[in-house]
Amino acid sequence: MPAPDPVLTEAVPSSPRVGAGAAGAGAAGAAGAAGAHRLALRRRSAVVGGMLLVLVIAAVASLLLGSNRISVDHVLAGLTHTGSSTDDAIVWGSRVPRTAIGAAVGAALGIAGLLMQGHTRNPLADPGLFGVSAGAGLAIVVAASVFGVTSSGATVWFALAGAVVASVVVFSVTIAGSGTASPVPLALAGAAVSALLGALTSFLVLTDQDSLDAYRLWVVGSLSGRQLDVLQAVWPFLVAGLLLAVLNVRALDALGLGADLAKGLGENVLVARLVGLGGITLLAAGATAAAGPIGFVGLTVPHVARALVGTGHRWALPASALLGAALVLVADVIGRLVGGFAEVEVGIVLAVLGGPVFVAVARRRSLVSL
């Protein structure tokens, strides 16, 4: 019988040590991964907490600053109804409504933009691409020209109806053309429907002076003159859209890997699209009806949110909401201070500020890649 191979005989007793070393290395790796996860969780929590603090500061500034200069004591007296009638009129008649509406509109547009970019996988997607702004604008013009309705409290219902109808038309055209809510047909249908509705709106405003007056005051995007009844009209739509967005978070993360892989992970792509587009419709419709078509919020805020907290939508969604709300309030305060008694509308301020920000976002490929 041949002698045993010395290499084999030495390797046998060493195998338990090798297995123990591999197990130890695996345990160390798992512990390191858990530590890295906890560190990332703390960092993201700190970032979201910082965003919340910024929003609170912006809200306080919106209550304190404006074309009518009143002291902090008078603002507090107005809030508690213990001051003069002038304090009450300024605080509750102007600053509280526009602060609440501005925060709600900014948060809604930030979340809608995040959902829109996630579903279309287009870094340049905006809630207005879904035809919401064009539909609301046409409804505002029809309300003024046909029904003689021009007050903000009444036109908000027309704007809501027009925005919802436009988004349903866009989705129906997409389904009829491709059999599913695919990103590219959705964007093309949205652009086509928006162009058609915009042409109809232009025709009506050029033939009717009352329609032109109502439309030009709405289309610029403003928080001025809005009262709390506007927020009372749109808040159910905003809350419903927020709930759909939260329900859509997990599916949206899967869709980011591609529709085929999402199906492999057990996601129903059509249902996920319906839920997400429903959330976009309700959020964008409510925001547009309340303050008019405000641009750049839904376009730029999701990019900044993803840069700060990562691409996971569980964290990007609250970050987008907080950043959008703070951005609209800050822009509104700037418009009040710059314009004096003739305030610069928040839509104009955001357009001026959003242009350079958009260019910076477009130049950073790490932000625009989805």
Descriptive terms for the model:
370 residues
Explain what this protein looks like in three dimensions:
There is one protein chain. With about 375 residues, the protein is mostly helical. Helices cover about 80% and strands about 0% of the residues. The protein has 15 helices and no strands. Helix 4 (about 130-145) packs across helix 5. The radius of gyration is 26 Å and the shape is globular.
Can I get a quick summary?
The chain has 15 helices and no strands. With 370 residues, it is an all-alpha fold.
Q: Tell me the distance between the termini.
A: 67 Å
Tell me, what's the shape? Answer: globular
Share of helix, binned: over 70%
Oligomer: single chain
What is the number of strand segments? 0
Topology summary:
Blueprint lengths: L5 H59 L7 H8 L5 H36 L11 H15 L5 H27 L4 H25 L1 H11 L8 H20 L1 H7 L3 H6 L4 H23 L5 H13 L3 H27 L6 H18 L1 H4 L2
Helix pairs in contact: 1-3, 1-13, 2-3, 3-8, 3-11, 3-12, 3-13, 4-5, 4-6, 4-7, 5-6, 5-8, 5-11, 6-7, 8-11, 12-13, 12-14, 13-14
